[in-house]
């Protein structure tokens, strides 16, 4: 039989109200009383009821997470997996559970908003999806607090990498080594892609260089096969680039494969840069030149912001939170002709 708060109160010699305040860190309870209540609760095996707690303050302490990944990499995705992991860890640290939002519960199909309301979540973190999906727009416009990752909605909070600065620093590093013919294979259309591509083009313009249209090749994120094809397209040009920026580190594997299959050396003939800073790929040699994203800080910041919006709605700003990136110079970008 579970220990009740009344039994705990009797054991402490305190009122139920005082015990409740001590357990919930009310400021008008002394440290001595709080320590007494907690130590007695631990000895008796008292566990507060999450349901009762939720009913009392009108919350379920459950956060919805929308994560839809077209690459079918599941929770092994090099970028989103650590974002989700840190989001979950921060949510749990603050006393919240996680529910993944889908279209189905049993045999019933629901919209994302309907699933959120069915599960009675307190708020939603949108980590990855098609942000122009009407069901996503319905969720954004709904009654629940929402925080997004890497996509801005008007009057909603978003956590993102400093993609603009990260790409600018990467381009400037490549330029500093003497490259003038730099191509960019960019991922599918998104806010992140637009920011990175614009930042790259601006860095080139500021260096007094123009980028030929054929040096800008669309591809897909997290897709080595698509990036290999895009790289082959660039290598077939009469005036091929001396350096290629890939969509991301994992996709860069396909680009490197295309360079080697063409009988060229990397980085001596063609330099290569990625974006993400995947720890496992940093162990490969030559070390990939890239920009490291702080995925764990992104996930934790998103969860923290969402909890603030839920618990302190009147004093929490809707804002864009930018997490710094870090340039990793690596060894796959050298001076044209193969010198470091």
Please explain how this structure is put together.
With 340 residues, the chain is an alpha/beta fold. It contains 12 helices and 14 strands. The chain has a 6-stranded parallel β-sheet with strand order 2-1-5-6-7-13, sandwiched between helices. α1 packs across α2, α1 packs across α3 and α5 packs parallel to α12. The radius of gyration is 25 Å and the shape is elongated. It starts with a helix and ends in a 12-residue tail after the last strand. The model has no long low-confidence stretch (mean pLDDT 90).
Task: Give me the secondary-structure topology.
Elements: H1 5-12, H2 16-23, H3 31-44, H4 50-57, E1 62-67, H5 80-93, E2 97-100, E3 104-105, E4 108-109, H6 112-119, E5 123-128, H7 134-140, E6 146-149, E7 157-161, H8 163-176, E8 182-186, H9 191-206, E9 216-218, H10 224-235, E10 243-245, H11 249-261, E11 271-273, E12 290-293, H12 295-311, E13 320-323, E14 325-328
Parallel strand pairs: 1-2, 1-5, 5-6, 6-7, 7-13, 8-9, 8-10, 10-11
Antiparallel strand pairs: 3-4, 12-14
Key words describing this protein structure:
single chain, 340 residues, four-stranded parallel β-sheet
